[in-house]
Amino acid sequence: MELDTTTGVILEEAIEVHRELGPGLLESVYEAVLAYHLTARGLRVRRQQPVRMTYAGIVLPDAFRVDLLVEDRVVLELKAVPRHDPVSERQLLTYLRLMGLPVGLLLNFGCPTLMAGVKRVVNNAPTAFGSRLRVNSTPRSPERA
Question: What is the pLDDT of residues 71-81, one digit of tens each?
């Protein structure tokens, strides 16, 4: 499935979840229900996907977790807050850069309409971090670092 098609399906299902449940629930509820809907549409979904990071030889097996990882290429960062916080976009962009993925969606289920709480974040930086930082990769030997 093409990336734009995948994100289109995600948005369709997220809008449906928001219409059915409305705002005011915990983020974990929206996460579980959206994962169910996306799986029913035939997408591969991982919830609370741990991301391994290596920095200067220090391995952090669960450096962070993404709320939902769809088709191993779209990161979904879910929120359930009344107002948009710009730090959430920066957090999502950092996840994308560290994971080497092209696009993520910030979905805020706390807004009156879901589309008011949707932000598409695109990672245009092919190498955003120095060679000392590795995510989900095997660390290089010291002579290759």
Answer: 999 999 999 99
